[in-house]
Give the backbone structure.
Amino acid sequence: MNSAPTRDSAIAPTNARATTPTHDGAIARTDEGAVAPTPEGTIAPAQGRIAPTTPATFDSARAYEHLRRQVGFGPRPAGSAALTQCRQYILSELKAAGIEAREDVFDAMTPLGHVRMVNVIATIPGRRADRIALATHYDTKLFREFRFVGASDAASSTAAVLELGRVLKARQNEYTVELLFFDGEEAVVDWYRNNDNTYGSRRYVETAQKAGALAGLKALVLLDMIGDRNLTVRRDSNSTRWLTDTVWAAAATLGYGGNFRSEETTIDDDHMPFLRAGIPSVDIIDLDYPAWHTAQDDLDHVSARSLQIVGDVVLDALPQIEKRLSTVPR
C-alpha cells in the first residue's frame, strides 16, 4: 500500500504515542456484547453500548494464531516457497471452516521478470448471488538487507479475513460473501516503477471484467496492516464515502472512536483497481506504524486486541452495508 507521498520509506506518525505492550490472550466479553479497551489491553464492559447487530462473534485468539502461523513461515514475498506454504495454510483453514475456495494462478510481469502469483478466492453463499468482498493481501515485501516477516503487513489482515470467514459461514448473509486473498500487492522492486504493485487485485478486476462477473460485486472492504498494538486507523480519501462513513459509524457505536480516527489520509492500495472499475470500496489500514517495512514488524509489535477491534467493527458494519446495497442503487 502507499500513503502519499512515499511508498517504501517510513511514514512519520501523526500525533505519535508511545507503544505500550498489551495482553495477547483471550478477550473477555459481557453477555450484552459490550467491549471497551482497558489499560491492561484486555477488553472490559463499556456503558451505553449498542449490542452488535449480528450474533456472530469474532475470536481474536483464533485470529492471532493465524497471524502467528504466518509469521512462522518467515518472509513470504511473491513467488517464494514460504508464500506457497502460507497459501496452503489459508486453503486448509478455509476448508476446515467449510468454505469453498479456488486458486487463480497467473504470471505477473515485474521489474525482475515474470513471477508466478496466485490469488485465493473463497465464497460463502448468501440469499443473493450479488457479492460483498472482504479482502487482504497475503504476500510480504521482498527485502534482501534484513529479514522481514510482516506480522502486521500482511499477516494481520490475512488472519482477520480468515476469522471473519469462519464467523460469516455461520451467519445468514443477505449477500454472497467473497473472501479475497491477493498475491503481489507489494512492489517487487519499487512501487512507482512500471506499475510494480497490486498485481493480484488488478488481476482479479481484469479477469472479472472479461468474464462479465464484476457487476455482481457490489462492495469491497479491504483490510491491511491492522495488527499494530497502538491501532490508529485514519479515513482514506480515496475510499467510497458512504462505505467509510458506515465503517467509522460502527467503530463509534462500539466505542472504538479512539482507534478509528476522523483525520484523513490518502492511500494507494489493493482497493484502487476496484475503485477505478466503479466498485464501492473502503480501505481499513493503520499506516501510523513505525515498524512498517522494517525488521521490527514482528510479533512483539502486534496485538490480538487490535484484531478484535477491527473484527468487531467489520461485523457491526456489515448489516448496514447490506441494508444500503439493498435499498439504494449505486
User: Anything to note?
Assistant: The first strand starts at residue 2 and ends at 3. Confidence is low (pLDDT under 50) at residues 5-54.
